[in-house]
Amino acid sequence: MTTSRTGAPGPRPGERGDVLDPRCPARQLLDRVGTKWTSMVVKVLAEEAPAELRFAELRRRIPGISQKMLSVTLRSLVRDGLVARRVEATVPPAVHYRLTGLGLSLEAPLSALRTWAETHMPEIDRNNQLADEAPPGSTP
Fold first, then answer.
1. Who's near 97: CB < 8 A, 6+ residues apart?
2. 25: helix, strand or coil
3. CA-to-CA distance for 19 and 29, rounded, in angstroms?
4. Which site from 21, 39, 82, 117 is most exposed, i.e. has the minimal number of CB atoms within 10 Å?
C-alpha cells in the first residue's frame, strides 16, 4: 500500500511511489497507458502477436483514430519499450510495429478493463440518463 507524502522527495529508481503524487513515475505511466488509443493499439497488436503490423494497417483497424494520434500513441509506446518499431529502407519507408514482451504483459490488464467497461456500460448509460433527467441541483 502506498500513502500520500505531499512535499516529500520522489521515489528512488525501483522504489514504489505514491500514485496520488503528480510527480510519481507510476502515475505518469498510468497517464500514458490509460488512454483509449493506447488500449486499442495494444489490443490490435496483441491480436497479431508475434507478427508485425504496418502503420496504415493499424490505422485501418482502429476506426476514428487520426494519423497524428496514432503516430503520437505509437511514439509513446515505443519510447516506453512496449512496442518495437522496424523501418524498412524502401521508398517510401515501410514502418512495422509489434508488441514487445513488456507490451504483451500489458494486454491482460487492459483487456480486463475493456471487459469491465463492456459489462457495465448498460448500467453506466442508465445512470447517465437518470442524471440527465434529474432536476438541476439534485445531483452532486
1. 45, 52, 53, 54, 55, 58, 74, 78, 83, 84, 85, 86
2. helix
3. 10
4. 117
Q: What residue ranges in the chain does DSSP mark as E strands?
A: 53-54, 83-88, 94-99
Tell the residue number behind the cell numbers 494520434, with chain if given. Answer: 69
Tell me the CA end-to-end span of the chain in Å, nearest whole number: 29
The tens-digit pLDDT sequence of the chain (140 residues) is 344 444 555 556 556 678 888 888 888 899 899 899 999 999 999 999 999 999 999 999 999 999 999 999 999 999 999 999 999 999 999 999 999 999 999 999 999 999 999 999 999 999 999 999 988 877 66
Amino acid at 127: N
Picking from 29, 55, 34, 39, the residue whose alpha carbon sits closest to that of residue 107 is 39
